[in-house]
Amino acid sequence: MKTACTLSILIITGISFSQISVQAARVNEFPVIDGIPDDEIWNLAIPVQENFIQHRPDCGKPMTEKTEIRLLYDDECLYCSFIMHDSHPEEFTRRVAPRDNDFSTEWIGIWLDTYNDDNNAYFFFISIDNVQQDGRLCEVGGWDLNWDGVWASATASSDSGWTAELSIPFSALRYSEDEEEQVWGVNFKRTITRTNESAFLFRMADNGYVRIEDFGDLYGLNTLPATRQIELRPYGAGRVQYLPDASEEWEPWVNAGIDARIGLSSELLLDLTVNPDFGQIEADPDEANLSHWESYLPEKRPFFLEGSDLFSMPFSLFYSRRIGSVAPDGKIIPILGGVKLTGSFNGFRAGFLDAYTGGIKHNGTTLVRPTNYAAGRIVREFGTGTYIGFSGTSTDIPDQDGALYSYGRSGAVDAQLSFLENHKINSAVAGTWNSDENRWNDNYACRTFYEYSDERFDLSGGISFREENFDANMIGYTSSTGDVNTWIYSGLYHPYADSEVLQHWWGKLNAWYDRVPGGPVTGRGIRFNNGVVFRNRYNVRCALGYNGSRTDRYEGPDGTSYNGGLSFSFSCSSDSRKQLHGSLWGGVNPYCEGTSNYAGTWFNYKPSPTISIEADLGWSRTRDARKYNWNLEEWSHRNTDWRSLQLSGNWMLSNYFSLRLTSQMSRFCTEWEEEDSSRDYRHWMNVLLSWQFRPGSMFFFMVGENADPDLQTGDFGEPEFTIFTKLTWFLPV
After folding, report:
1. 675 Cβ contact partners less than 8 Å away, ≥ 6 residues apart
2. Structural domain includes residue 628
3. H or E element: which one contains 164?
4. pTM (2 d.p.)
5. Where do runs of H (alpha helix) occur along 456-510?
6. Which of 126, 205, 584, 728 has the greatest count of CB atoms below 10 A from its CB?
7. Residue 549, pLDDT score
8. 3-state secondary structure (DSSP) of residue 322
């Protein structure tokens, strides 16, 4: 059986016109996914045979090589076949890399706007070496590279180019059940490294931005399954750890748990976890943090990564690293269980999460009490870029061991109006309510900004204010409060269509002015950034700015004022497709009436398509900064020096089997005028073996070492060793 509907869309490509028809054909049998689309079943598909439209290096011109696309589907999957013609296949760039790794080689990809709402899309990319990358793109939330589906792919190369086949289960996608005949938004993208070409089937902006509203339509999808698949991921883990300060030098540990994913419908997904373990997560890199606030750490844990775009709340009301964080004695607070509901219904997108963490005691003293965390967000979209969202969080800590019950609540409403194609107005208001009786007043926040954006020019400006007692830190991330922040930004993008050397130039100008209402100025300045990208993918950028005088309300018992000054920074990088690729950066800034200097370099060396070695060297220092010495309770001048070396190596024995080494050595020194100085030497290293022995099922084996500084000398302390293993089994039901 074959369903055929035709979509004709006009694409302007210089002086020529092309009629493009994108359709999927229903079949009763599925093709073999082996990378070679020679099965007879592919002949039932209506092929798309087009030159994609470049956005790099020659915006708007046809790609120099043709691409053939065919789409089939049955009751289980959408099948895609790609034939990438190439007149010089001997010049292909090859690299085997971990899943979701940035491609620096030939690749092809498909976007699917399954609701055809111009706001949300899945993407599935595959490289010539069968490296998969997938994720989501949302108008509300942006790119989400953490979304992972279980899908199949294969590739092959020949003397006329290369080919690829994909099988995407409908159970991995969310779409409407209300329409028997589905119409999805669709687009495709291909790169050719030999000619530096990057192109779309349906033309995107010249600057390469992916605009979902400019996708074409995919017809022919009829009577899709109302998927309610259940996926189970039981796991078992074990660890033995050497703790030099413990009475028993080797401490064993075993654990088991299960993650479950239940498709309540083709639009709603329920995630459950019991006793999850995140032991395979690599250590967070050390960094120099000279601010008054804790470092904001990226999320790495699978349970929180899936659907993270739905939990992106105004004013950082939700910060998932609060859940299962580190206790005062250095132990990880256990997450005993969690539930998460994400999806769409009746025109709404929603996400709800609840997690319960256990307590930690040390020598009979309670360090952390059991805590329940909850967060939810609902978004109603009204066309491209227009929406209203409602967010809320709740944290509850029961009374225990003499400590009273405490809680934290927060809520927010945010909305965006898109009009006249390129204009947006975004506003939000939020509040926090905590059990601390001093935090019931002055606890609101608000913001609004305007934005204009087209292919060449960006302009935006806004204002935000958080009252003094606004505090979401029980489950969110709150820093400075009590001042009004205003800013304006403009950007310009200029491509060089006829240049043999230059690709494009960009420039950005932004200014800001912050102050306490009726009080001191807390920040002001202006900064100009610009850069040039060359056709060989090298780039150079620099920035010049001026920071005005300001008041730091958090430095010293009563705050203090600082003079401003000029700042300068630069960076450059080479072509990531080359065997040796690197970057260099540096800068100088005014800092607390002294100076702050920094420099660094990073390089990646690929001696073979399966091996990569990286090194990242960083250095920063401050000189003659006027700071308050809290130990001596007096003002003084402070110097700091931070140095870090990160090394990593990755050996891909196959697309599904890898060995990775990551390590960091760092030193941070502080010196006061009164010779009250300190230094911290740190080192950590992980050797991780990863094996995907079947789709969605993983085996990990890790050996790690960590050496914190000695409390007396600051030198490397006695190292702790960890041997960890974990097996996760994917069981679709």
Report:
1. none
2. no
3. strand 161-169
4. 0.85
5. none
6. 126
7. 96
8. helix
